[in-house]
Design brief:
Blueprint lengths: L18 H7 L2 H31 L4 H9 L1 H14 L4 H26 L16 H30 L14 H26 L8 H27 L11 H28 L9 H24 L1
Helix pairs in contact: 2-3, 2-4, 2-9, 3-5, 4-5, 4-9, 5-6, 5-7, 5-8, 6-7, 8-9
Length: 310
């Protein structure tokens, strides 16, 4: 009977508060925390913009566009997390924006590995090549589908939310979120598989291009922005994260996720600057590829003739 006498703060059952409500509730420690996190997000964006200027001037096309996309994952997520930190009602939109951007980054990172290995566009037509044109097409398509479908499902989710049919906390079988989110998860796994295959194929060849630490940062962004956020949200939905008025349990879990992401993406942005802000050699021209193909074919023919004569 004692359980029926427990009172619940009405704030724990309310929706996310407005930005002005958060500002009015901040104490000295809260002001310091929000100020430091906002500064980190701003510095991440400034570091990224400075890196974009350097890459645009120093890196030949089309590699510079790909690098700008890939290195933008951490600062974009940090910026969206900062917006969600100050405006909790917009957390769903900021998370979806970050997820859509990272879906494009998955495809762009695959393209980056191919561009760092310029011979891959000509090697498939040679005998005994480990990667065929058909395989290369399937790998690209596997990542590209995620970039396209993730954006499409994000738009659909926003439209359904506006109509009152999409709620992340609704885990009933009749809810739309319980169908859309697992399907997007399957698309994510399908998209990550081609990138992992290509990395295993090129990790030794592109060791001098620092491919291993670049891939590690890419994987870290994936784990922190997707898996970490999902775990915290699940804990919040189960009530394992206590309510702290004016924040409900789910809103407080989302804010904790945003705070962690800002700090983590700030560090990753600095590491990416060390990895990508370097001198890039221009990619060989197409005619040079054709010349290499002709020379390789000649060598193969000479070897085969020598074996026949023997």
């Amino acid at each position: 009977m004692d359980d029926f006498n427990i009172t619940i703060d009405p704030s724990c059952l309310q929706e996310a508060p407005l930005a002005i409500d958060i500002i009015e509730q901040l104490d000295v420690l809260g002001i310091i925390l929000y100020s430091v996190l906002t500064l980190m997000a701003a510095l991440s964006l400034l570091v990224y913009l400075e890196e974009c200027v350097y890459i645009y001037r120093k890196v030949p096309s089309p590699k510079k566009t790909t690098i700008i996309w890939v290195t933008g994952a951490a600062p974009v997520i940090a910026t969206m997390s900062c917006l969600g930190l100050w405006i909790p009602k917009a957390i769903m939109f900021t998370d979806m924006t970050s997820g859509s951007y990272f879906a494009i980054v998955v495809y762009k990172f695959l393209i980056l590995m191919l561009e760092e290995w310029p011979c891959c566009c000509c090697c498939p037509c040679l005998p005994h090549a480990p990667v065929t044109r058909r395989t290369l097409f399937l790998l690209k398509f596997g990542s590209l589908q995620f970039a396209l479908l993730k954006t499409i499902f994000t738009i659909i989710s926003i439209v359904l939310w506006a109509n009152g049919n999409f709620d992340l906390s609704d885990l009933e079988i009749t809810g739309t979120a319980i169908w859309i989110n697992p399907f997007v998860g399957v698309l994510t796994i399908i998209a990550l598989w081609p990138v992992a295959i290509m990395f295993m194929h090129l990790r030794n060849t592109l060791r001098s291009q620092k491919l291993i630490p670049k891939y590690a940062m890419y994987q870290l962004v994936l784990v922190l922005s997707q898996l970490q956020t999902a775990i915290i949200n699940i804990l919040a939905l189960n009530g394992d994260i206590a309510c702290a008025p004016p924040f409900s349990s789910s809103v407080r879990g989302s804010l904790m996720s945003q705070q962690l992401l800002i700090l983590e993406m700030f560090i990753i942005t600095l590491v990416n600057r060390l990895l990508y802000r370097r001198h890039y050699e221009p990619l060989p021209a197409a005619d040079q590829h054709e010349k290499d193909n002709a020379e390789n074919a000649t060598i193969i023919l000479q070897c085969e003739n020598g074996d026949n004569m023997a």
